[in-house]
Amino acid sequence: MTTKAKPLPQDLKPQENLYDRMSLQFSAHYEHLGDPITSVISNTSQVLLASDLEVYSRRCKADHVWDFVDLGWYKDHSDKIGLILFENLKPVRTVAPTQEEKLADAKRVLVIGHVNNSTNVLVLPGCSQFVRVDHPSSLQVRCEFEETNFRITIFPYNPIPQKS
User: Fold this and answer.
1) Fewest 10 Å CB contacts: which of 44, 90, 141, 145?
2) Where do the structural domains in the chain lie, given as residue ranges?
3) pLDDT per residue over 9-43, tens digit each?
């Protein structure tokens, strides 16, 4: 037996001028033997115009050859890309890794480069990095050693126009 969905109350119906929000929280803690812990905590939030674009997330593989980043459906909407998160995924094993495997895994550094810039961003295994660039379609990735699996997540950006 199926039931018919009840209509939304008037105050829950979609309206003009509804907003999206992008919030970031970052914390880093460093402990040096014998010293107090040094902590940095940063929070930011930005209200954006509502967008029909969704967050894009995909697992990818990088080897030693530079390859352009797969932007998914953002390929045709690169002006709407806000932040891109790269996560360098550690290998998943069913048994404990050997010492040789641990050493090899530590070399699987994801390198993020930009065609118009000689500076690269390095993402260590098990770590992540947010980037924001002017021309996302020019982003390239490679792995310094053999290959690595990584996840890319793209967040939309639709800023509220500033009144002059």
Assistant:
1) 44
2) 51-156
3) 555 444 555 788 888 898 999 999 999 999 999 99
Q: What is the dihedral of CA 52, 76, 88, 134, to 10 degrees?
A: -100
Q: What is the pTM of this model?
A: 0.80
What's the half-sphere exposure (Cβ side, CA atoms, 13 Å) at 129? 17
Whether the CB-CB separation of 80 and 156 falls below 8 Å is answered with yes
Let me know if domain 51-156 sits in CATH 2.60.120.10.
Answer: yes
What is the per-residue burial (b if ≥16 Cβ within 10 Å, else e) of 108-119? bbbbbbbeeeee
Say what percent of the chain tops pLDDT 70: 88
Which helix (H) or strand (E) segment holds residue 60: the answer is: strand 56-62
- What whole-number distance in Å separates Cα of residue 4 and Cα of residue 164? 48
Helix spans in 37-131 (H): 99-106
